[in-house]
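Task: fold both queries, return tokens.
Query 1:
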Amino acid sequence: MKKIFSNTVFQIALMLFLFFNCQSQQTTNANLEEAKKAIAASNEIYFQAFVKGDSSLFIDRYAKDCWIMPPNAPALCGVDAPLEFFKTAYNKYGLRNGKFITIDVFGDGVKFVTEEGFWQSFDADNKLFDNGKFLVLWKKTPDGWKMFRDSFSSDRDK
């Protein structure tokens, strides 16, 4: 009798573990899909800021405690970083449009996810003037998914 009870308890415990593990996996997949959709929508808006010359569209892509880490330059950190970066890209480099090519988004989709991919930058004549790769750590904030750490580098020799 004791052995039957022990086996029954074990089987119930195993079924509960499998049930909750499956539920957890479904939640993680749903969270990651939601993050991927939000990132794709944000990326669509990102370069529109340069097309329209509207820094507010650009600034809204980033978390308030963001770091933007351009190559061969100090990191830009905090609430003023996106505006500082926008002004430099727009005024100094003539960025007027671009494209992100997301290769993957991975993580649990609860608080953070990482996006990896490639980017292209275009000038006012729609001429490609730079391209490279990026890693962005996205953070879920009360205002939605925002770029928390943005690191990128060019594929071109300057």
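Query 1 returned. Query 2:
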Amino acid sequence: MRERAELEGSQLSRLKLDLASRGLSPRKRFGQNFLIRPDLAERIVGHSHLDPDDVVVEIGPGAGALTLHLVGRVRRLIAIEKDDGLAAMLREQLAEAPGLAVVNADFLEVDLAALAAEYGVPKLRVVGNIPYSVTTPILERIFEQRAVISTAVLLVQKEYAERLGAPAGSPEYGSLTLFARYHAVLEPLMTVRAAAFWPRPEVDSMLVRFFLREGPPVDVPDEALLFRIIRGSFQMRRKTLLNTLEAALDLPKVTIERLSRQARIDPARRGETLTLEEFARLARAAADRLA
């Protein structure tokens, strides 16, 4: 315990000196919480199961806690950092690191397909300690570009991770759960306590691995319609499908009853009890009605 405290203290002291010497400090606007436990950084990278020939995109390397353990382990590491000062610091400190490219850009605007083509790989691997405030936009971007991503290993807020993996009928289960499940298979890997970061966040984090799906796990004729039904069901969480679908689809109750029977689902159920496959059955029935 004493050795760990000394390690954390020395790491934090070095980080503060490095930042101060460049006139930098953690920026709340960017949601910057720097990992100060090298042992955890090593474990996180180990959980990523990277191969020497991989091309890896690191989201928000910050002060380089994970970057230091990623360089030299893969063929190419592309560290995408939005903060100008931190990007410059990484370029200076890791100028001799093999296979590292530091890109000063917003990950949400990066064309991953172009990166995969540039480095001649069909799929990229993604790793990152990502800001809590933009977790959903980052996931949306990853899912949007899933054709060129095999896995993503991300540190997210623990409560957010619990929502991602929640079972139907639980309080955490919602449209986010189903959105993630539609695009990826999730594997929770480890909890990282708030004390492992500086500045210390108010909540713990969890490391989650996303295996991006080659194709959707359910058959629907209209993906947009599926998520319209899902979102509508959870916007009025305590109401029955008869009421939520009437509002979401702008159809009369008698029609909702018919399509529910067609989908073999009781319209008196609440959306929070339905699985992704059941929502897909509703979407198929609705598509027939709305055609």
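Both queries returned. Flag for query 2: The chain has a mean pLDDT of 94.
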